[in-house]
Amino acid sequence: MDETSDGVTEIHRDINNLIADLEIPLIDWDDKWLDVYLDISVKLLDISVAFTSEITRLNQSHLLLQCVLHRLESHSPEQFMQACSLLDSWRQHIGTKNPRLETCHPILHNLVESLNLPKVRNSAKGKVLVRAMYGAKVAIVYICSVFAAALSGSAPNLLDLSVLNTLPWASVFFDVQTTVNSDARKMFSCGKFTGLRELDAVDACVKTLYPLLQHRFGSNEGEWFRNSVSDLRTAEELLQGLDNLSKAVDGYFKIVWTGGYALLCNLRTSVGVPNSMLGRKVEEQAVR
Q1: Structural domain total, the chain
Q2: Which of 11, 46, 90, 179 is deepest in the core (most CB within 10 A)?
Q3: Beta strands in 240-283 (DSSP E)
């Protein structure tokens, strides 16, 4: 998933570079162009914060698993009971919904409702910019919906976007969206705990190990128990994946923030830009 997040960062960086390359004077920027760029930037910052919150929560759950493994090393019945209690805490922690992550659904649907291609007149560069921002918005919103579905384990977070058939990339996008959504929904229908493969593996291990500890089976109860403990150590793969994902999301947050902030600063310092250019909506976005 971190590679996908890197791809989203590249899309946003490419838009920032395109804005610079086109050299469209800010005085010529249409309000609609600003709305498209700033609106998606602010909302995606909110989504990035939600993703970071969930990654932090999952990292906290990993600490519980580390405590479990430490207790199991003692081979003491008392320590085994504590390990059982910690596994129960892990199950409760991981099964709790993250309120911040829940905010992604309405934000994404709000972005979908505003998914349109503004008409541009008498500006060839403006047409290039608006079409590029439209394509970037489609790609980023969809990818974020996949992230939201994977992290929340909720298929409803997956979006089925409709785009203009006349666009040269429309058929490719539809093919990718159909394949990914079909596979994801099939996976969730099979009772998968989440869209994260490593977390699913840990959850399956906990489901095996917890009843053994609950019934006070010790390490001398057979190879099955020892294998379950060994499998739990694969949680390190989840930790590494979360670390990579956290860095990718952080990098994306920075590129979105710096791009939007730079644009607002340029708007405020440009000579001759009318006050109406900023508008109340842009002011509100700047405050957020």
Answers
A1: 1
A2: 90
A3: none
